[in-house]
Every structure is written in C-alpha cells, then in structure tokens.
Amino acid sequence: MAFDFPFVKEALTQMFKKSSCEEYPFKPKEAFPNYRGRIVFHGDRCIKCGLCEKVCAGGAIHNVLISEDEEKEVYERTFDLTSCTFCSYCSDFCSKSAIELTGDFHMTGTKHEDLLVKGQYTKVKKKPVAKAAPAAKAESCDNKAE
Ligand code: SF4
Ligand code: SF4
Questions:
Q1: Domain coordinates in residue numbering, the chain
Q2: Which residue puts its alpha carbon closest to atom 8 of ligand 1?
Q3: Which bound ligand lies closest to the C-alpha atom of 58?
Q4: pTM for this one?
Q5: Ligand positioned closest to the Cα atom of 59
Q6: Which residues are CB-neighbours of 121 under 8 A, at least 6 positions away?
Q7: pLDDT digits over 6-16, tens only?
Q8: What's the distance, CA 26 to chain centroid?
Q9: Any idea what the Cα angle at residue 60 is, between residues 96 and 50, rounded to 5°?
C-alpha cells in the first residue's frame, strides 16, 4: 500500500530555500523615508515660544525649572514617548527646527525613563527698565520775559 505525503516534499523543499522573512535584528533595518520615530530635541535652537506645547494634543511635553540665577533660568524639557502620538505637530510648528522626529524606531524599554527624551533650554531674564528721570519743568513765559 503506497502512502502519499505531499506536505513532506513541500517541507523538505522549503527547508533549504532562502527565508523570505527580514533577518532583523541580525541585519540592521532602516526606517522608511519620513518615518516619525524617536524625538530629538535641540535645546540650543529653542526660542521658548511655547508653541510646541500648545499644539501637542497628547500632552507629552513638560518643562521643569532646574536652576536659576539673576540673569537666567534653565529648564529641562521632557518629551514623554509613552503619551506621544508621533503626529509631528510640535516639529512642524517649530520655526527653529528644534524638534526632530527621527527614523529611530527602537522605542522599547523596561522602565518609564527609557521612553523619556530630555533636553535643556535657557531663558534669559528681562532686566527691569530703569525709569526715566522726570523732565525738567519748562521755564514759564513770565521768567522768559524778564
Ligand atoms: S522647541 Fe520650537 S516650538 Fe517649542 S518652544 Fe522651542 S522654539 Fe518654540
Ligand atoms: S509628535 Fe505630537 S504628540 Fe508627540 S510630542 Fe510632538 S506634538 Fe506631542
């Protein structure tokens, strides 16, 4: 009695074929163009306009004052990638290109801090404007006539 096992032939054929799967992570993989991945903040370009926070629907951008002296305040800005929807609004609205959504898609971690992107920016304090001395009273017409 002859047995027919067609799947055995197929299994043996596939066993020696090149895999059709991506060999990631053994072979690095680039993101597609315009992929919106991990955020990078360039604090030195920031002009403190606050627009990025206003347009962030995810409420993912937070600022904390970390130091202060008579001339300036230094803030730490955090982008919480666990709240971020990667909409890119913050980056699109930033006129100084201080926020970048990169092609880095490796966004995993074992703790919350692994998914926080931090950067610092400095706010120069405005110096109080000295009040101008009151203008000297103009001489009266009577005095001029004398
Ligand atoms: S990162 Fe850009 S949008 Fe946000 S406060 Fe700075 S300059 Fe303004
Ligand atoms: S990409 Fe969108 S959700 Fe994420 S921080 Fe920017 S504005 Fe907020």
A1: 29-126
A2: 49
A3: 2
A4: 0.77
A5: 2
A6: 43, 44, 46, 48, 74, 75, 77
A7: 788 888 888 88
A8: 29
A9: 35
